[in-house]
Design brief:
40% helix, 11 helices, Rossmann fold, eight-stranded mixed beta sheet, 19% strand, 295 residues, alpha/beta
Length: 295
């Protein structure tokens, strides 16, 4: 028995000796960024907060607003954490932004929220070493629509809300054509239900000439002051027809605005193609238009 006890004890000591160097490593050794949570950014609603992901850097950081989708329902942004982590691990400050949505709040409120987030970050740029000349927005689905609205309306009102680039995954850019174009209707089997949810967010009954439906559409705001936009969409998206991205891209091209369009054959509404790398395409576009060198 004594011999057995000695052997077990020696084994435990040996294992502890092997683990000790790992246990004593600095907690932050492998982390490429840190997170500042619960930042109140909107004077009009103190419940709205953002989380700021800051990569390690010795200089000013380009900043990307990461806008979660979700059918224009209210969002905390936390469901888009993976995108913020990806951006921060590649040298971008990333902000997960909460916003209000249907049915209690309509598109002017939602847009006011993401504008307030951009304004807050730019106003506090020195505090976190952000570069106020290198702001962008990235979003999927409803978040893609909001990213495009920031890109196309920032020059119309408060330039503190203006961004220098946007990346839009499967967004809606023309709400009227979505429900009037036969080709687009054929690509979205649940278009009747989508009409109801979009109407709840826009806050007015649908008619082709309804001002609110035009105002909610990024394509209606295109002008010479707009930021470059990258459109990413999957051809088999049954929720938002890929023609939304194609049509807005073509409109920007006609106006001599900078835009790029990548359409994947598969990937669905999440734009997750089997043989494509949309996030890498996003990085290339952001680095190019924010003039950021690859680390």
């Amino acid at each position: 028995m004594p011999q057995t006890h000695y052997t077990v004890r020696s084994y435990r000591i040996a294992i502890l000796a092997l683990l000790l160097p790992l246990l004593t490593l600095p907690a932050q050794a492998e982390e490429k960024f840190h997170i500042i949570p619960d930042l109140v950014f909107a004077p009009h609603d103190p419940q709205l907060q953002l989380a700021l992901y800051l990569p390690q850097s010795k200089g000013r950081l380009p900043c990307v607003l990461a806008l979660q989708g979700g059918g224009f329902l209210p969002q905390t942004g936390k469901g888009y954490r993976g995108m913020a982590e990806y951006l921060a691990s590649h040298g971008f400050a990333a902000a997960l932004v909460a916003y209000r949505g249907r049915p209690k709040h309509h598109f002017p409120d939602t847009l006011a929220d993401v504008r307030a987030a951009a304004r807050f970050l730019r106003t506090n740029a020195d505090r976190w070493q952000l570069d106020p000349q290198k702001f962008a927005a990235v979003g999927g689905s409803a978040g893609g629509t909001l990213a495009a609205l920031l890109a196309t309306t920032g020059d119309e009102t408060d330039r503190d809300c203006q961004i220098q680039a946007a990346v839009c995954f499967a967004g809606v850019f023309d709400f009227v054509s979505r429900f009037q174009d036969p080709q687009q209707l054929a690509l979205q089997p649940a278009h009747a239900e989508k009409l109801k949810t979009n109407q709840a967010w826009i806050g007015a009954p649908f008619t082709p000439d309804a001002p609110a439906w035009r105002q909610a559409s990024p394509a209606s705001h295109l002008n010479a002051g707009d930021a470059p936009i990258l459109f990413l969409h999957s051809r088999n998206d049954a929720t938002v027809p890929w023609l939304q991205s194609q049509l807005c891209h073509h409109q920007m091209q006609q106006l001599k605005l900078t835009s790029e369009l990548i359409v994947y054959e598969d990937g669905g509404h999440g734009v997750a193609p089997a043989n494509g790398k949309p996030r890498e395409e996003m990085l290339i576009f952001l680095r190019k238009h924010l003039q950021v060198s690859q680390h």
